[in-house]
C-alpha cells in the first residue's frame, strides 16, 4: 500500500490545478501552476521549462528516505525546519535545495510557508513534489511572524528550528545546532553570529542595533545571550507550543526569546556563519522593528501571565532533571 502526502493550502495560487505524482512508494498530491517566474540567480526568466528544471532539482531521489537524506536514523528525535517566504523568487529554489542536501543525522521535514508572494514564489512552490517538503500558502501577506506560526502549527518533529529563504544563513550550520541536542547537553540551542568571525554585515547600524537590543534582553532577564535576533533557534516542539506567542511580524523573533528566557532557559550557543543582504537585495527589516523589539521585551518581562510549562534541563553529567513548575507572577 502506498503512502500519501498531501500538500494542504488555505490560499493556493490562482490558476493552479491539483495533480498527483508518484515517487517510489509515496503518492504526493500537489498543485501545479502552468507557468511562473523562476530564478536561482540574478537573471529572471519566465517559462514552464524553467519550472520543470527547478522542480526536477528539488524532487528527492526515490532511493532516499522520505524523511532522512543521509540514511541515518535517530528514533528519539525528528527535526522540523520552518521556512517562511515572501517574494523570494531569486533565492527560494536554491535555499530549499541546500536544506534538502544537508546530511542530517535524524529524520527531518522542511515546512515552507509562502506569505502571499506576488513575484512567482508561490507558483514555484506549487511545483515541488518531495516527500520531505510540506508547502502552505497564505492568501495575502500577513507578516513573517504569522508565516512562522503557521509553520509551527504544522510541525510534526520533536524539535523545531526556523530557517530563512534568503540565503543569509548556511544550512550546514543546522548540524552544529543538532549536536548539543542529540548529545543531551541542552534543550534550547541558538546559532550565534559572532561579529567579525565568518560574518558579513552590510550595515553598521543594523549590527549595532542587534547588540543594543540583545543587551536590553540580557539586562531584563538576567541572561547572557550574544545574538538575540539570530534566525537559528532550535528548541523542543513541546516548549514552542507552550509559549504564548502573539506577534505577527518580525517581532515574533524577539517574543520567542523573551518567553524562553523568562521561563528560565538559557540557550546553548554555537557559532554560525552569516552573510547579510542590503535593502536593494531584498532585506525587509527596518529601524522601526528595533524599537518594536524593545517594546516586546518589556511587555513579556513585566506581564503577569502564568505558564504551566515544566522546564527540563539536560546536561552530559546529570542527564535529564525535572525542575519545579515555573510560574510567572500572578496578577
What would your notes on this structure say?
By secondary structure, the chain is of the alpha/beta class. It has two domains: 1-167, Spore Coat Polysaccharide Biosynthesis Protein SpsA, Chain A (Alpha-Beta Complex); 170-331, no CATH class. Helices cover 29% and strands 22% of the residues. The strands form five sheets. The protein has a seven-stranded mixed beta sheet with strand order 8-7-6-9-12-10-13, sandwiched between helices. It starts with a strand and ends in a 9-residue tail after the last strand.
End-to-end separation: 55 Å
According to CATH, what is the class of the largest domain?
Alpha Beta
- On the 0 to 100 scale, the average pLDDT is 76
Total count of domains? 2
CATH architecture of the largest domain: Alpha-Beta Complex
Q: How big is the Rg?
A: 20 Å
Number of discrete helical segments:
9
Unreliable spans are: 1-10, 15-55, 59-74, 313-331
Largest sheet: 7 strands, mixed
Oligomer: single chain
Shape field: globular
How much strand? 15-25%
Based on secondary structure, the structural category is: alpha/beta
Which fold name is given in CATH as the topology of the largest domain? Spore Coat Polysaccharide Biosynthesis Protein SpsA, Chain A
Amino acid at each position: 500500500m502506498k503512502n500519501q502526502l498531501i500538500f494542504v493550502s488555505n490560499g493556493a495560487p490562482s490558476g493552479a490545478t491539483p495533480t498527483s505524482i508518484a515517487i517510489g512508494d509515496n503518492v504526493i498530491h500537489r498543485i501545479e501552476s502552468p507557468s511562473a517566474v523562476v530564478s536561482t540567480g540574478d537573471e529572471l526568466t519566465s517559462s514552464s521549462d524553467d519550472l520543470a528544471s527547478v522542480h526536477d532539482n528539488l524532487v528527492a531521489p526515490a532511493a532516499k528516505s522520505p524523511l532522512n537524506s543521509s540514511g541515518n536514523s535517530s528514533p528519539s528525535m525528528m527535526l522540523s525546519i520552518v521556512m517562511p517566504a515572501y517574494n523570494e523568487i531569486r533565492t527560494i529554489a536554491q535555499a530549499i535545495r541546500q536544506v534538502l542536501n544537508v546530511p542530517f543525522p535524524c529524520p527531518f521535514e522542511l515546512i515552507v510557508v509562502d506569505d502571499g508572494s506576488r513575484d512567482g514564489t508561490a507558483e514555484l512552490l506549487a511545483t515541488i513534489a518531495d516527500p520531505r517538503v510540506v508547502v502552505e500558502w497564505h492568501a495575502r501577506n500577513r507578516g513573517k511572524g504569522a508565516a512562522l506560526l503557521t509553520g509551527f502549527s504544522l510541525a510534526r518533529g520533536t524539535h523545531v528550528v526556523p530557517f530563512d529563504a534568503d540565503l543569509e544563513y548556511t544550512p550546514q550550520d543546522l548540524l552544529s545546532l543538532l549536536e548539543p541536542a542529540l548529545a543531551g547537553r541542552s534543550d534550547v540551542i541558538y546559532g550565534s553570529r559572532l561579529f567579525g568571525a565568518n560574518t558579513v554585515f552590510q550595515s553598521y547600524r543594523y549590527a549595532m542595533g542587534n547588540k543594543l537590543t540583545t543587551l536590553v534582553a540580557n539586562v531584563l532577564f538576567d541572561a547572557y545571550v550574544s545574538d538575540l535576533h539570530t534566525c537559528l533557534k532550535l528548541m523542543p516542539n513541546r516548549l514552542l507550543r507552550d509559549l504564548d506567542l502573539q506577534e505577527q511580524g518580525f517581532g515574533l523573533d524577539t517574543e520567542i526569546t523573551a518567553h524562553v528566557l523568562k521561563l528560565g532557559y538559557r540557550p546553548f550557543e554555537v557559532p554560525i556563519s552569516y552573510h547579510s543582504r542590503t535593502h536593494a537585495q531584498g532585506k525587509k527589516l527596518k529601524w522601526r522593528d528595533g524599537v518594536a523589539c524593545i517594546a516586546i521585551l518589556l511587555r513579556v518581562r513585566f506581564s503577569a501571565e502564568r505558564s504551566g510549562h515544566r522546564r527540563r534541563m539536560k546536561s552530559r553529567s546529570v542527564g535529564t532533571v525535572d525542575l519545579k513548575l515555573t510560574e510567572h507572577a500572578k496578577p
